[in-house]
Amino acid sequence: MNQTYINELKNHIGEEVTLKGWLYNTRSSGKLVFLQLRDGTGIVQCVVFKPNDEQLFESAKSLGQESSIIVNGKVKEDTRSSIGVELDVTGLEIIQNATEYPITPKEHGTEFLMDNRHLWIRSKKQHAVLSVRHTVVKATRDFFDENGFILADTPIFTPAACEGTTTLFEVDYFDDDKAYLTQSGQLYNEATAAAFGKSYAFGPVFRAEKSKTRRHLTEFWMVEPEMAFAQLPDVMNLGESLIKFIVKRVLDERRNELTVLERDVTKLEAILESDFPRVHYDEAVKILKEGFAKGELENDFEWGGDFGAPDETYISKQFDQPVFVHHFPAVIKAFYFERDAERPELALGADLLAPEGYGEIIGGGERAFDLDFLEKQIEAHNLPKESFEWYLDLRRFGAVPHAGFGMGIERCVAWMCGIEHVRETIPFPRLLTRLNP
Ligand code: 4AD
Ligand code: MG
């Protein structure tokens, strides 16, 4: 295949190359047409000079936005260009001249852009966000692979809930059976951790979230590590190492994208500089109550409640670093949490709250060890015991203290990119009111 990619052009200065791609934008002035060509790896300005070839000049001028083309030309150093080069065009082959591309350089509303998501992902900003996503995913995999975790993916069709029955998607399975789309692979991870010591799952999970917030998708990707012979502090240590690993990788490899996104990278660089604070739930409640007393929070917070988005933002603002909140009241948590030995009303769970208002990006903790206790929990949460028998086997045969967490990839990407809403961090988002395209 005779094709040079735009991100390699700097190594070809002075050479004749063939570029294949799509027309991002055009501009002409007098005897010149400037084609902004994109090929997925970058955008380069291709210059067509009328006196060189009038016919070529006319066809270049006739091209619509997003036309597919093959361009031949000579690579020229250009210090004004962000990629350091441009192309002097000597030949142009039109594969398809596109007309009336719906997304023009003018401003469009979000709903319109979301309806055209299949095309919108070609634009600079979306391209940057999804490139960062790629790097976050790759870094995440590398982190676990390099730290002795075995990838053991978990099923999407499941017989029962993991994270509470209110957000379950039900689907018809054969012969009047019902299945549920998984909310988390955790229960299965507990089985694979007992097989491998350290395991992780990484895949899509589903939540019938009736909330229309900037942090919620109905289908999102979660990475979930699980460790045998591990406890709550191990969860926080692992989560902190993972986040720092990701931040460093994104800073190393995605500077250009962060620039396109106008991300304040000093905020990300600061993450690497210090330890993440760890705050007991009691302490977090105190912070919220003080915030309310100072008039900095609209609502007072009662011990025992779950944090809302403004609460999470307020807590994280006090630290300017990602902060772990741990030891939540068990009543607001899922059935499987281990309890604090001295204060059994507390669950040995920890959430990591990202700075800058990005909210909870990691949730996890230590799993209940005791068979009787778990049986009672399953009953108390109105879960069908027969579907959990296999899970209870993990307590019957070689039970050990074990722990793990889940990190939502989209929330992590939104934070890295500094963008408002998680819907732009996945190629085709699924939301309460969106199933298309
Ligand atoms: O806190 P969650 O619900 O934890 C679990 O599911 C555990 N079973 C994970 C485990 O311990 N293995 O979800 C974990 C993370 C959250 O911190 C958040 O980042 C993300 O998943 N998340 C969502 N992301 C996008 N849209 C939603 N609706 C999300 N719900 C949770
Ligand atoms: Mg959570």
Tally of DSSP helical segments = 13
Tell how many strands the DSSP assignment holds. 16
Biggest sheet, spatial arrangement of strands: 6-10-11-16-15-14-13-12
Beta content comes to: 25-35%
Anisotropy-based shape = elongated
| CATH hierarchy class name of the largest domain | Alpha Beta
Could you say which structural class the secondary elements and strand pairing correspond to?
A: alpha+beta
CATH architectural grouping of the largest domain: 2-Layer Sandwich
Summed up, the domain count is 2
Keywords, separated by commas or semicolons:
437 residues, binds 4-amino-1,4-dioxobutan-2-aminium adenosine-5'-monophosphate, OB fold (Dihydrolipoamide Acetyltransferase, E2P), five-stranded mixed barrel, alpha+beta, binds magnesium ion, BirA Bifunctional Protein, domain 2
Describe, in plain words, how this protein is organized in 3D.
- With 437 residues, this protein is of the alpha+beta class.
- The protein has two domains: 6-96, Beta Barrel (OB fold (Dihydrolipoamide Acetyltransferase, E2P)), CATH 2.40.50; 117-425, Bira Bifunctional Protein, Domain 2 (BirA Bifunctional Protein, domain 2).
- The protein has helices at residues 54-61, 110-115, 117-120, 124-146, 186-196, 232-253, 255-260, 265-271, 281-293, 309-317, 371-380, 389-396, 409-417, and strands spanning 16-29, 32-38, 43-49, 68-77, 85-96, 150-151, 157-158, 169-172, 178-181, 198-206, 219-228, 278-280, 323-329, 346-354, 359-366, 402-408.
- Strands 6-10-11-16-15-14-13-12 form an eight-stranded mixed sheet, with helices on both faces. A five-stranded mixed beta barrel has the order 1-2-3-5-4.
- The longest helix is centred in the N-terminal third of the chain and has 23 residues, at 124-146.
- The model has no long low-confidence stretch (mean pLDDT 96).
- Residues 351, 360, 363 line the site of magnesium ion.
- Magnesium ion binds at residues 351, 360, 363.
